[in-house]
Amino acid sequence: MLRTYDVATVRAAEAPLLAAGEPLMLRAARALANRVVWELRARSLRVYGTSIAVFVGGGNNGGDALYAGAHLAARGAAVTIVLCAEQAHEAGLARALECGARVVRAVEPGERGATGEHGVADEQSVAGEPARIAREQAARAAVWIDGLLGIGARGPAREPVASIIDALNDELDSSPAEPLVVAVDTPSGIDAQTGALPGPALRAHLTVTMGAAKPGLVLDPARRRAGKVDLVDLAFERTLGDWSVSVLGDADVADIWPLPGATSHKYTRGVVGVLAGSERYPGAGILAVSGARAMGPGYVRYLGDERLGKHLVGMFPDVVCAEGRVQAYCVGSGNPAGGEKTIRTAIDAAIPIVIDAGSLCGVAGNIATLGEKLPETAVLTPHAGEASGLLARLGQSASREEIESAPFVYARRIAELTGATVVLKGAVDVVAGPDGHAYAQGGAPGWRGVAGSGDVTAGAVASMLAIAEPETHQPGGPALLAAAALHVHARAAAIAAGCEFDEQLLGEASAADPRLTAPALTDARQRAGHPICATDIARSIPVALAEILG
């Protein structure tokens, strides 16, 4: 499990160690340099003579970048330090100069000077705008190290850094030989807490994050700027307390999955009741049932349209079209009739329920009118457009675009307003529990974005709640189980599309040993894959589970 921690928590943990003289920066820089060496070797490139541009801001991650540049220069790399702030970490810059790095100033020094007493004679002054200077240096380099902005940055990048980021992204887009871009701690320009992009943000292939992962690295849209993530252990993560957002992997899902035993039967393995589909949207009912039964419950009941039920039984003879005992419901996909009654039944009986699509706004309207919040065992599964409508019913205003720009923020808001567990579906599915438990499950290929994929999701989540029903009554249980189902769904989509699952966490960067156990980026590239339909995802769920549980 990849756990992330609030930025304020990480900064508070670092502060006493830095004050006590702990060499955190030196350890972080060595691990960063080792990761760059590893990537060069994976590309059959020598460190000696490779051109590396280090873009340095005025914060601590600029210091990390300077010391890493010094390590690489000492090994014979042609390192150029590009100073992009009025001031830089003095000791780090002095060390880089001692090791033979070349220094180019993109931004003139402030009143105190960018370097203090060190290195003035070794700096190369270049006339011109900061963005142009930075881009010229970038164009000459095979590797870029991004040390412009760190976790202390708030809001959009200010000038001249904003223009420098734009220029570097333009160079990245137009370069015939794409450089390797390595971000220090977080890519410059992202909101490290929420994953939002308040302004321009540099695209990295790899982020080497220090001490503990930050939420913005795993949350969209910033996740797409971070690339793969390496975590440098600085020995303070165990002191951080409660985590912020987590990402489940195969081992985590396998740990919580209740495997059937010799005496298991259809009622002990979970019974799912699905009320989905309508005359106008019959496919939604078929897909929700497909997602539910593919997860391996003991029993699936279809509770919707009678004509659709007859068709479903023809497709899936194991599906029963009759009321009866259930351990979790799935309601709303395809705007079925009778959703409100089923929701009330589930809530009154404390039965977990997934509420999707057409049933979402009705639930929100009842909350707004009656002031009655939902239990944690109610799981809402909107996409961004549905979330916008749901918030409007709750007296809040947020457009689809605003929600997509900060999904974690809005998922948490909906959870707080409704009392429910929220799954905000997207390229990275965000799960937010009313008690603060949160998950970000990505890795699916873009091919997953097809009609009906969300209906399969709703059925799969409901099935997971039924299969592990006792866990749903534990604090944070519904969020954990929803995240597990989302991981399976994403893995199934990758299998269906013929892609590698996009595992974000590569491993742990080492401050001591460049022979890392994590794969190189060249070993982690995805195959392009091919188009799929929602039915393909449902059919691939058992294959994904076999890989996860095997």
TrEMBL record:
What processes in GO biological process is this protein linked to?
A: metabolite repair; nicotinamide nucleotide metabolic process
Requisite cofactors: Mg(2+); K(+)
Residues holding (6S)-NADPHX: 60-64, 150-156, 185, 284, 334, 383, 455
Where would I find the YjeF N-terminal domain in this sequence? 10-242
Q: Name one Pfam family in it.
A: Carb_kinase
Give me the comment on cofactor binding: Binds 1 potassium ion per subunit.
Q: Which residues bind K(+)?
A: N61, D146, S188
Q: Where does AMP bind?
A: G454
Q: Which UniProt keywords apply?
A: ATP-binding, Isomerase, Lyase, Metal-binding, Multifunctional enzyme, NAD, NADP, Nucleotide-binding, Potassium
Q: Which reaction does it catalyse?
A: (6S)-NADHX + ADP = AMP + phosphate + NADH + H(+); (6S)-NADPHX + ADP = AMP + phosphate + NADPH + H(+); (6R)-NADPHX = (6S)-NADPHX; (6R)-NADHX = (6S)-NADHX
**Cross-referenced InterPro entries, in alphabetical order?**
Carbohydrate_kinase_pred_CS (IPR017953), CARKD (IPR000631), Nnr (IPR030677), Ribokinase-like (IPR029056), YjeF_N_dom (IPR004443), YjeF_N_dom_sf (IPR036652)
Provide the YjeF C-terminal domain boundaries.
249-548
Does this UniProt record's set of keywords contain Lipid biosynthesis? Answer: no
Q: Does this UniProt record's set of keywords contain NAD?
A: yes
Single GO term (MF): ATP binding
Which EC numbers does the record give?
4.2.1.136, 5.1.99.6
Self-association or partners: how does it assemble? Homotetramer.
Q: Which HAMAP family match?
A: NADHX_dehydratase, NADHX_epimerase
Primary role: Bifunctional enzyme that catalyzes the epimerization of the S- and R-forms of NAD(P)HX and the dehydration of the S-form of NAD(P)HX at the expense of ADP, which is converted to AMP. This allows the repair of both epimers of NAD(P)HX, a damaged form of NAD(P)H that is a result of enzymatic or heat-dependent hydration. Catalyzes the dehydration of the S-form of NAD(P)HX at the expense of ADP, which is converted to AMP. Together with NAD(P)HX epimerase, which catalyzes the epimerization of the S- and R-forms, the enzyme allows the repair of both epimers of NAD(P)HX, a damaged form of NAD(P)H that is a result of enzymatic or heat-dependent hydration.
The record's similarity note reads: In the N-terminal section; belongs to the NnrE/AIBP family. Belongs to the NnrD/CARKD family.
This protein is called Bifunctional NAD(P)H-hydrate repair enzyme
User: Which gene carries the instructions for this protein?
Assistant: nnrD
